[in-house]
Amino acid sequence: MNKERSLQLNKPKFGGKWTKSDVQVFLMSSVGLLFLIVFSYLPMFGIVLAFKDGDLQLNILNAILRSDWVGLDNFKAFFVDPNFYSVLWNTLGLNILMLLITFPITLIFALLMCEVRHRRYRNALQTVVAFPHFISWTIFAGMFIAMADMSTGILNPILEALGIMDAKNPSNLLEARYFWSEIIICSVIKDTGWSCIIYVAAIGNIDPCLYEAAKLDGANRVQVALKITLPMISSTITVFLLLAISRLLSNSFEQFYAFQNITNLDKSEVIATYVYKMGISNRRYSYTSALGLFNSVVAIVLLAGSNFVSKKLTGRGIL
Amino acid sequence: MRGKIVGKRRKPLQAAEFVIYLFMGLFALVTIYPFWYTVVGSFSDGMDYQGGGVWLFPRIFTTANYSVVFADARLWTAFGTTILRTLAGTFLSLVVTSCTAYGMSRPNLKFRRVLQWLNMFTMFFSGGLIPYVLIINMLGLYNSFWVYVIPSAYSVYNMIIIQNFFKGIPTELHEAAVLDGASEFRIWWNLFIPLSGSVLATVALWCAVGHWNNYMQTMLYTNNPKLITLQYYLMLLIKEANVEFGELGDNITSQVTARTVSFAAIVVASLPILCVYPFVLKHFAGSVMIGSLK
């Protein structure tokens, strides 16, 4: 019925005559738009703060309305700030390292998971390994910090038993120099099981005939994985890789804040937590707005750039 | 799923398979052990735990840690706030997101391209933290319970997932309802929502877990002790456990330490997740596929 109507239309103004149903449908889809306007688009006007001198104003509204335009000074401010480079390095370096480690691990884990033929064992595995994803970072950090405690934790004794650490000269695993390894290991443990589900599902959708054919040709397990499974799920891999690349400057605030303490800030301060501390606690509204804008723009550039490269190389992209 | 292909007869494990099984089992042990460690700690005598070496079972069993946790009024306030926000937030999310998804899924939607673009753009670009906080303050949401519920009510990602599901509902059903004189609003509420149990359940569980685990909003938008959420309270407790006892000091007995008490609090706070987890599991594999198809 609606199709006929839209066929009659000759593309006049506002899409032509609106039926009752059209109006209702439009109103319904506007409900979400209303939320986006208030909580996503209105804040975008606040970006003007990045070009104003609003630091240390009484509140954010004052900072927007009463302060002077300063052009790109706020951007210059963080590019000459030595603190910022340490934060940027923690963010970018750690995220690249994290991506290089977690991404292949998730993929390998998914491939291995699909090799587990025993149904009940596999279900049990999936149940267990996906569980930590649903637990908050607060709790996860609390558990890890307790386990890494020098005198009461279990990690030091394990490392000593494995001969990795000298029992006579134990080191405190919560020190700054171990922070990167700590956060990467925790991310792997918490999220691998959940992230691999998507790949497992994608692998499950591959046409079984391909495997039958490979088996008849005498392909072994590794060959099947490399020549059939991986190519068949490469579009899923591309999507998640591109999204991960676009997030190279973003971290979960909740993850890092939960692991931070005064002694490891050198290595644990990332843009997400730095913006919170500078913006909310120190009221440097303009400085952090500029930083936030820089962050958003870099994210978009990374996404568009990696999407472009991916389209050139594989013909696949997400935009 | 490959299991089916290989055949119903279970073949004996080959060496390679055995290694894989063992490795996966080890990984599962590593993921689950921190939880066991915490449970053990929560039932341990605080002073005894302090001596180290409490790894697999409590050496001196006690429930004193739980007594301290249960006696802490802050925990119960935080628990109440968190349960309320989870229920209210999840409900509002579902209504708002599925209503929008219904509109976006109808073929006769006008300005579809514009609407889609406006939705997608927010997934990749945001105004940043400071202007967002300003909006929250200007709306009078600072120090209000609703700050937990309203700003996070709509999620583009969840909308797309529900929308894809709605698109799969046969058009004949919609046409029949139109012939019966139902408005689009009624069709959404009385026809589409009852038909979409599985996808709505999945999104609801995601929302609920998100609400349950969030603590950043508490830090940003409130200084009212009554609005402290469970995870924020836990974080205070855990950070206290590293340094010294905070307000818990009054309840301290020789049987507990800040650390073992924080273990008990962690266990109490995780129990609700553990209870809904089986339901998440039941739905997640299918729904994740819906998400990845978009």
Compact description:
Chain A is mostly helical and 319 residues long.
How does this model look, in words?
The complex is a heterodimer of chains A (319) and B (294). With 319 residues, chain A is mainly alpha-helical. Chain A folds into 2 domains: 1-42, no CATH class; 73-314, MetI-like fold. In chain A, 70% of the residues lie in helices and 0% in strands. Chain A is built from 16 helices and no strands. Chain B is mainly α. Chain B has one domain (72-294): MetI-like fold (Orthogonal Bundle), CATH 1.10.3720.10. Chain B is 71% helix and 0% strand. The longest helix of chain B has 36 residues, at 258-293. The two termini of chain B are 22 Å apart. Mean pLDDT of chain B is 84; it is low at 1-8 and 289-294. Chains A and B meet through helix 1, helix 2, helix 3, helix 5 and helix 6 of A and helix 1, helix 2, helix 5, helix 6 and helix 7 of B.
The strand count of chain A comes to 0
Rounded to the nearest angstrom, the radius of gyration of chain A is 26 Å
The DSSP helix count of chain A reads 16
Q: Assembly type of the shown chains?
A: heterodimer
- N-to-C terminal Cα separation of chain B, in Å? 22 Å
Q: The biggest beta sheet of chain B, please? A: none
Topology order of chain A in helix (H) and strand (E) letters: HHHHHHHHHHHHHHHH
Assign a percent range to the helix content of chain A.
Answer: 55-70%
Briefly, what CATH class of chain B?
A: Mainly Alpha
Distance between the termini of chain A: 33 Å
Gyration radius of chain B, in Å: 24 Å
Which residue ranges of chain B are poorly predicted, with pLDDT under 50 across at least 5 consecutive positions? Answer: 1-8, 289-294
Largest interface: A-B, 117 and 108 residues
Beta-strand percent range of chain B = under 5%
